[in-house]
Write a structure and sequence with these properties.
Elements (H helix, E strand, L loop, with lengths): L6 H4 L26 E5 L2 E14 L18 E3 L5 E2 L5 E7 L16 E9 L10 H4 L3 E10 L15 E3 L15 E3 L10 E6 L5 E5 L5 E4 L5 E5 L8 E2 L2 E2 L17 E6 L5 E6 L16 E8 L10 E8 L11 E8 L2 E7 L14 E7 L19 E2 L2 E2 L7 E7 L3 H5 L22 E4 L8 E7 L9 E3 L2 E3 L7 E9 L13
Antiparallel strand pairs: 1-2, 2-30, 3-5, 4-5, 5-6, 6-7, 8-9, 10-11, 11-12, 12-13, 14-15, 16-17, 17-18, 18-19, 20-21, 21-22, 22-25, 23-24, 26-27, 27-30, 28-29
Organism: Lentinus brumalis
InterPro entries: Phytase-like_dom (IPR027372)
Keywords: Signal
Length: about 500
């Protein structure tokens, strides 16, 4: 049953918005040219045309299982065939959103992995005048629909508990065509530990999920049942004393750092190449400290026939993440395919509403070009004894991707147009701290055929004073809503998967 709700009626500071007419006047059909920020990359001009939409889901909203709906910005994707243009210049579609591992501020919990479907109506605002926060919410209206839960082998629930145990690799038998590698499991119930981050939807209804524990990539059926597991090269796997150890509580000797797994997941326009981005450098590549962890890895898998043979690694490149003024790495939270060799990468600090500090210095969807980068897959660098970087410096012989600043989420002028701000006070209009997702949809503008809407959503970490987790109420001491932003961007040569949209 669809659980429809009106955001303005549920948000404690926007209860009066339904009592007055919207102040969104469609005085422009295109963004104000003065907002445009142009970036040159690979001989092409990419343009950030500014913020055009904002919406939220209140921090205390509950989903169909009875739990608080939270963390949904860990990953978003557009449901295939759902995005279309309405009359009057509005657009509609359905987000598939995926939280990570539940409310775990006080430790990991036995929380089943899941995804949610959320319908939306986008009414882009192109005016230069500042909207009231309540009116800004009318630019992106959101309606929760339903929730799908994830199960693993033997119909067991997945869990969010820390992976303190290892399930041995499967051996091939008559009923197993593609065996599981050694898997991260909880020590108590032995269920698959899943800290879900990336999400890619396939044409046949199956979907890929990247996680932080492995870091692995899992293929699930349309009903949420585990089908297959992809394991990255050994250099990325976490080893302690020569043995696989998937815990997120401590860093391994080599491999991905704790809580720094495959944050980003995307697929090319043909749906045959899957890309996974490590959040920051592996331990041997400098991941022990933020000052040396900028050189991370983007790995590509051939998924053209995933049910016939295990997808193999077909590419691996070094990504030079941005650094703040202190020289610390701004880790990656998402990657999204744009065109051959070109991607969007979401890198950020942890400040904002619900973060360590109210004032954020960096939250951006940046451009990455790997066209001239060195492909290191199948080389000595897939062995952890051969790091790609030492003490924060890339070894000789490796050319990293080209990284360019592009769309800032914290531009003061753009935030003010939607009643938002960066920095004090810490109220409902403060931009959230943790933005971790990206999705693209065409603008259907014949005058600007390369223009797309760039959607992003925040992971609010389930922070609510009226939360419910595993049937038990909790008070996190703060209310942080699930915020969504929409930008309009020009991406030359970009395309979406053919069945993602309908005209």
């Amino acid at each position: 049953m669809v659980l429809a709700w009106v955001i303005a009626a549920l948000s404690f500071q926007v209860a009066t918005s339904l009592a007055r007419p919207s102040q969104i006047h469609r005085t422009r059909d295109e963004p104000d040219p003065s907002f445009a920020v142009k970036v040159q990359l690979g001989g092409k001009t990419y343009i950030n045309k500014g913020l055009v939409g904002f919406g939220l889901i209140p921090s205390n909203f509950t989903e169909s299982t009875g739990d608080t709906l939270g963390g949904i910005g860990s990953a978003i994707a557009l449901k295939r065939g759902s995005f279309s243009q309405n009359s009057g210049g509005t657009f509609k579609g359905t987000f598939v959103t995926q939280p990570d591992r539940g409310f775990n501020v006080d430790g990991t919990i036995d929380w089943q992995g899941r995804q949610h479907q959320i319908d939306f109506v986008l009414t882009p605002y192109y005016g230069a005048e500042d909207l009231d926060f309540n009116d800004a919410l009318n630019t992106l209206k959101l309606t929760y629909r339903d929730t799908l839960l994830y199960t693993e082998r033997n119909a067991q629930k997945t869990t969010g508990l820390d992976a303190l145990a290892v399930r041995p690799a499967q051996t091939l038998s008559n009923n197993i065509t593609i065996a599981d590698p050694a898997l991260p499991v909880a020590a108590t119930n032995k269920h698959l530990s899943l800290d879900a981050e990336g999400l890619v939807l396939n044409a046949d209804g199956t979907f890929w999920v990247s996680d932080e524990y492995g870091p692995y990539i899992y293929l699930f059926s349309p009903l949420g049942d585990l089908i297959e597991t992809l394991q990255p090269p050994k250099a990325i796997l976490p080893f302690i004393d020569g043995q696989l150890n998937f815990t997120s509580e401590t860093d391994p000797d080599t491999g991905r750092a704790g809580n720094q797994g495959f944050e980003g997941l995307t697929v090319d326009s043909t749906g045959t190449t899957l890309y996974a981005l490590l959040q920051s450098a592996t331990i041997q590549d400098g991941g022990t400290d933020k000052s040396t962890s900028r050189y991370t890895r983007l790995v590509a898998f051939d998924i053209s026939e995933p049910l016939l043979t295990r997808p193999s690694v077909v590419g691996e490149w070094v990504v030079p993440l941005p650094q703040n003024k202190k020289g610390n790495t701004l880790a990656a939270s998402e990657v999204h395919f744009v065109s051959d060799g070109v991607f969007l990468v979401l890198s950020r600090d942890g400040d904002g509403h619900g973060g360590d500090d109210n004032n954020s210095a960096y939250k951006q969807a940046d451009l990455l070009d790997i066209s001239n980068a060195t492909d290191i897959h199948g080389t000595k660098f897939d062995d952890p004894t051969n790091p790609i970087a030492k003490k924060g410096s890339l070894v000789k012989g490796i050319t990293p991707g080209t990284y360019k600043s592009f769309v800032s989420f914290i531009d003061d002028t753009q935030l003010a147009r939607f009643g938002l701000h960066n920095g004090k006070p810490a109220d409902q209009t403060l931009i959230d701290a943790k933005w971790e997702s990206l999705a693209l949809a065409p603008c259907f503008d014949s005058d600007f055929p390369d223009d797309f809407f760039l959607f992003t959503a925040a992971d609010n970490d389930f922070i609510s004073t009226q939360g419910i987790s595993l049937g038990q109420p909790f008070d996190a001491g703060l209310d942080v809503d699930n915020q969504f932003l929409v930008f309009r961007v020009t991406l030359p040569g970009a395309s979406t998967t053919e069945s993602d949209v309908s005209h």
